[in-house]
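Final report, results section. Input specification for complex C-07:
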Amino acid sequence: MKKPTIVVLGAGYGGLMTVTRLQKALGQNEAEIVLVNKNDYHYETTWLHEASAGTLHHDRVRYPIKSVINSKVKFIQDSVLEVKTENKKVILENGEISYDYLVIGLGPESETFGIQGLKEYAFSISNVNTARKIRDHIQLQFATYSTEVEKNEDRLTIVVGGAGFTGIEFLGELANRVPELCKEYDIDFQKVRMYCVEAAPAVLPGFDPELVDYAVSYLEKKGVEFKIGTPIKGATPEGIIVAKGEDEVEEIKAGTVVWAAGVRGNSVIEASGFEAMRGRIKVDLDMRAPGHDDIFIVGDCALIINEEINRPYPPTAQIAMQQGEVIAKNLTKLVRNESDLETFTFENKGTVCSLGEDNAIGVVFGKKVTGKTASFMKKMVDNRALLMIGGASLVAKKGKFNVL
Amino acid sequence: MKKPTIVVLGAGYGGLMTVTRLQKALGQNEAEIVLVNKNDYHYETTWLHEASAGTLHHDRVRYPIKSVINSKVKFIQDSVLEVKTENKKVILENGEISYDYLVIGLGPESETFGIQGLKEYAFSISNVNTARKIRDHIQLQFATYSTEVEKNEDRLTIVVGGAGFTGIEFLGELANRVPELCKEYDIDFQKVRMYCVEAAPAVLPGFDPELVDYAVSYLEKKGVEFKIGTPIKGATPEGIIVAKGEDEVEEIKAGTVVWAAGVRGNSVIEASGFEAMRGRIKVDLDMRAPGHDDIFIVGDCALIINEEINRPYPPTAQIAMQQGEVIAKNLTKLVRNESDLETFTFENKGTVCSLGEDNAIGVVFGKKVTGKTASFMKKMVDNRALLMIGGASLVAKKGKFNVL
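Structure output:
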């Protein structure tokens, strides 16, 4: 009997967790494991805001996939175009592969909700490439300001669209980085403006209001100006247009606009004909796509409802890794012809939102934390992801220890 | 009797050498010394190619003026607009000052010879601000290439206009930096092109031909393509237009164009009504401007003919510092009412052209040198400038020792 082929698409938190658990659980003869990823490295999505602000080098936020997989896994570096579910094939940019079992762990895409100009003129914190582009772009704005005879101060304005997790964490880094940049480029800090523009009426929706207040007043003290309840109507080469009241609009001129207000699932989901909401599939309890016994969904493309509040769980590294563990177990059962698949339940270990190098807010094991304690917790959360996927040696190589 | 005021304009090699010698030679009661400079720091013009390529941080190429002047010198941070010789005044952007003796040590300006588009679309290695802009611009080109879906390889092309000293030294740094950038931005080195475009029929005119051959073949091996005898006709947002044969032109598309083929004296010279050739005054033997007993010219704005070849000495740090020493001596004599002013004679200690971190070519004390020896010599030349102006402590702080 031919051994089954398990194909995992994407080496993000979910995909890599699935693969690293599978390579431990399964014997060489039980299954062939194939991992497909665009890059030959994994990157820490949850650290990209640091690379984007320039507070952490982008090589610190990635590691080679080869360093965490073993000889049981065949790695293919390629981009996924489509899944042909009817003949169990994945179409890649440079070829195709057949699967017996498939795990879709493809990453998210930026969602601009049709707002004009955002795609062209705003950056998004999506991957290592876009992160270093944001960093380099901001630096060039500062460098250009220093050289130009007629100074354009708007160059020094940075607009962050979105007061969610990514937006706030990015602003936390920026608030630390901008004074450094000012020193580096001989620019008066007073000339720089940092805006957080959010359509919703609140910062960090879902977070404890007391912690949100703490975050907002901390960032304000560091120079961030909040424009809450202010929808972005469009982006231009000169900045953004925002709504002002019911009918009016206002222009905010800015040399840098970063859109951090929306992600959706991967468009491969729709291209492959799955039923989905913005690229996310409402998965069965065992993490399979409805109607597809051979396909699991992990991470950003998986939609699971939090029954307590009747809203989807936000796509986080934490939930993706927990899903990956369950999927690896369920695949092991399927390969061994066991039928009692496990059910996924999210165990919320807490959430910490970083406010820069030495501050954060969060709820950990049900307790509210702020300041250095929260910042320490955040770094431990970051290190835990490394530990779960690559073990202690990866923590030693890539971990965050510059605390307390 | 009121003590005379000596005003020195510019804190480059010549101006700072004059001031630091004067503060040693003159007593507190003999003269008031005023130094005017745009920035509160001095920068090593001869190291700017490194900061521009990104091989040396721009803070390594500058030091605070306060660190080398003492309490005898009054420092004014301002820009010079004009010298009113008839009433012995200097007009600054934010005020004016009177002088009894004046030393003009203002820096050079880029000379584009009327070539269309160069001012708008080409960078020049002129100061700390332009250096970091070039560095950041190149990085953003590499970052953008990594993010774009339809790859524009021309982005990765860097054109250097000019095969003189600055052009070649910059290419030497680039040739080392580009492979690092490729690694940093995940780009195949084969996709990057580096051009040296020069209108004259030779590289490094005036240099020993054997050394020139060494330099060209070394840089070619590192990926630089030379287009010699090729005048640049214009620059555009997409690159440059060069002459091809008698009547035709050719486009070289490039994401970065650096113009390193021409400098002129400072335009304040013409604005002040001095007789000059491209902003440079043919000085008297004692370094004074003809017809102006109270005005000395040092550095880039001073024109002195090398009688051996009947051509002007190129404006270098070496000649500027030697001039500064003589000017300080002559000012001391004038303040003390002595009339036997010294005559300036250039003592050529040799010239070394860097080809990057660990290679160079040069003639030192009449001997040709290449490779590590020449590179070591170059670093010693660089350190000597620090020593002459700021003493051993400045060498310890800012010197170059990463050799052999």
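Chain B touches chain A at residues 39, 59, 128-130, 132-133, 135-137, 139-140, 143-144, 146-147, 184-186 (CB under 8 Å). Chain B has two domains: 5-38+78-108+265-348, 118-259. This concludes the modelling results for the funded period.
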